[in-house]
């Protein structure tokens, strides 16, 4: 695989500089355009970032920087997302491994799983409201339900494709069943599993916001819908920025974890090439 | 090697490749048999849970009632019109995303300078969940088709863009250089060399985003307070006293719709990108 990008350090730095300059220019254009157009829908970015700072980060050093509204707006959302995703990952990986190892089980429930995967998550919101109610459990359940499929299907197909030679080689060392699972199958399937985890995280955020925009009492989605009702565009933009940061940070975190966990894998790929 | 135990392999160790899938050895008939058992088992379980009132909130209608209602809905023109509204909005938004993302992705993939200049902006804007823009878009674009399509387009444009750029970057450099040395123009190289090798990656993007498009469209109807479409229909039914049967039936139909769309995309993918998968394996 040949990339046409030259990979010398100098050009990498100049590319990064170019990228950030372009982003800064775009912000500046937005700022100037917003100030001169005075559109209520699109406030200038300086006002937005000021509002973000005042709203969530202005408590001062002695109070730990974060304001009270940070704890009522942002933290509940992060908590729901983390719990929902954690359940989805654990259940998804476990089921995926089981399906990948037990063909009869896979053949039996595969049609059902394909159906569930095709089910658009937000459709379940009205059903969940009636069956589960409006509490946090409903929102976490919705996140889990939506986020489980990419993990499950990726694990399943990655486990199916673990080369039989690996297993035979491991078996010849009289490896235990748990050893086989944790030292052969899971590591071999790990890149596939991680790809699923990444997709599931962005789906989880969509479902988190969707569920919080409806019948909630706290969280980012709730703040957003409150601001919409009172036509506070600046506040809405603050929540949108918060969402963007949440998405950006979660992606960054996953990429970091992937790099440290799968470093050996990249090494192997490099040797293979 | 001082092994004290004698090792007898249970089966001959054959060199195996990762594309060798041991599940594919089973026949379609076996798949069909077990699959039918799975579906019937699930429906029976559902029926029992509902009939014996095993759930804490006793609202779930039995499977038989739900399926009967679903069959009724599928012949009801008023309901089918609502599905039509949803599909149309998703399609319009998706078309907009494709028309923007694919040419732009080709351009950004081919030009290193443009790619470097835009990558930071893309990385900063991409993580924004489009559903979070619904409240703003409702105030700017209303609650109808424009708003829904905008949400779908915003949600699908970035994954498609990133996949197209990735596809262009994975083009074989030697192939590109060879084509150039034939004296082909850059446009011809892009059309005959770069585009064909980017297609599989673009189709991967399509497969991922098509189901997201449906999710976003229904979510936008639901949250944006649309008056048309499957999402708003479901919301309305959930408020009616006996509406839970219809809600469950609607969910089943939405699942089948998603299944159908996924099937269509995977047929497209096998048709236009199977050569690449064989190549990679």
TrEMBL record, chain A:
Keyword set, alphabetical order: Cell membrane, Membrane, Transmembrane, Transmembrane helix, Transport
Membrane-crossing residue ranges in chain numbering: 78-100, 112-132, 138-159, 180-197, 236-257
Pfam families recorded: BPD_transp_1
Keyword presence, DNA repair: no
Membrane topology: Multi-pass membrane protein
Domain ABC transmembrane type-1: 74-258
UniProt record similarity statement: Belongs to the binding-protein-dependent transport system permease family.
Cellular localization per UniProt: Cell membrane
Highest taxon, organism lineage: Bacteria
Record flagged with keyword ATP-binding: no
Protein name as it appears in the record: ABC-type nitrate/sulfonate/bicarbonate transport system, permease component
UniProtKB/TrEMBL annotation, chain B:
Domain ABC transmembrane type-1: 83-265
Keywords: Cell membrane, Membrane, Transmembrane, Transmembrane helix, Transport
InterPro entries, sorted: MetI-like (IPR000515), MetI-like_sf (IPR035906)
Pfam family name, one: BPD_transp_1
Main localization (coarse): membrane
Subcellular location: Cell membrane
Membrane topology category: Multi-pass membrane protein
Residue spans crossing the bilayer: 32-54, 85-108, 210-235, 247-268
PANTHER family reported for this sequence: ABC TRANSPORTER PERMEASE PROTEIN MJ0413-RELATED (PTHR30151:SF0), ALKANE SULFONATE ABC TRANSPORTER-RELATED, MEMBRANE SUBUNIT (PTHR30151)
Family according to the record: Belongs to the binding-protein-dependent transport system permease family.
Protein name: NitT/TauT family transport system permease protein
Organism expressing this protein natively: Rhodococcus rhodochrous J3
